[in-house]
Amino acid sequence: MELLRVAHSEDKIDRFTAAIEELTLNRENRLQHDTEEQRQRMLKDAAERIRREHEDLFRERVGDLDAKISATRIAEINRLRNEVFLLREEYAATVFGEATSQIAAFVASDEYETFLLRLARTISETYDCSHIEVRLREDDLPLQWKLAQYFPATCLFVSSSEISLGGLIVWFPEHNLLLDERLEIRLEAEKGWFYENSGLKITW
């Protein structure tokens, strides 16, 4: 009877322990999801705030420039277009400067390691990684031991000065393929979208 009571207690403890582990995992997943949503929201709010602050000034200055344009003065038109271009670049630099700061904060957080590991897993599942070279920032080289779990032992990890913000580059010599997953490239890709959708695209 005593042995049955002990076995029953141990079973209850095992179930209790499993429930705690499942709850902890769910909370960790929810925290990671909420943190990513907060980062995206902060970046969007920052860009919107800067846009509102500059919109009136931008339109006023562009309006002043348009008023000065004379159809018979080609040189003046070109000069004014250059002013509009510089003003657009100043506006974009402010927005993307804020975005770069947000990325730097992300890279400094624990989320960045999770991001790199998830990226490595996706690449390993998508490509033949038998013989590859993975390029990382100097600061990210210590993570190679964790990243290595997703690549064959023949994978070579090297430091690259090509990466400034973060991410990685994978070179597939057998296929002459370079997979560029740098964060700065992703940010650069957003600039085209930004110019198209912010009303700042200039038609020459």
Spell out the blueprint of helices and strands:
Blueprint: H1 2-68, H2 74-107, H3 111-126, E1 133-136, H4 144-147, E2 156-159, E3 167-172, E4 177-182, H5 183-197
Parallel strand pairs: 1-2
Antiparallel strand pairs: 1-3, 3-4
Secondary-structure-derived class: alpha+beta
- Poorly predicted residue ranges: none
Our estimate of the beta-strand percent is 5-15%
| Largest sheet entry | 4 strands, mixed
Radius of gyration, rounded? 26 Å
Mean pLDDT: 77
Question: Could you state the order of secondary-structure elements as H and E?
Answer: HHHEHEEEH
Describe the strand arrangement of the main beta sheet, using strand numbers.
Answer: 2-1-3-4
C-alpha termini separation: 91 Å
Number of helices: 5
Query: How many structural domains in the coordinates?
Result: 2
Helical content stands at 55-70%
How does this structure look, described?
This protein is an alpha+beta fold and 204 residues long. It has two domains: 2-108; 111-187, ATP synthase, E subunit, C-terminal (hypothetical protein PF0899 fold, 2-Layer Sandwich). It has helices at residues 2-68, 74-107, 111-126, 144-147, 183-197; strands at residues 133-136, 156-159, 167-172, 177-182. The chain has a four-stranded mixed β-sheet with strand order 2-1-3-4. α1 packs antiparallel against α2 (74-107) and α2 (74-107) crosses α5. The longest helix is centred in the first third of the chain and has 67 residues, at 2-68. It starts with a helix and ends in a 7-residue tail after the last helix.
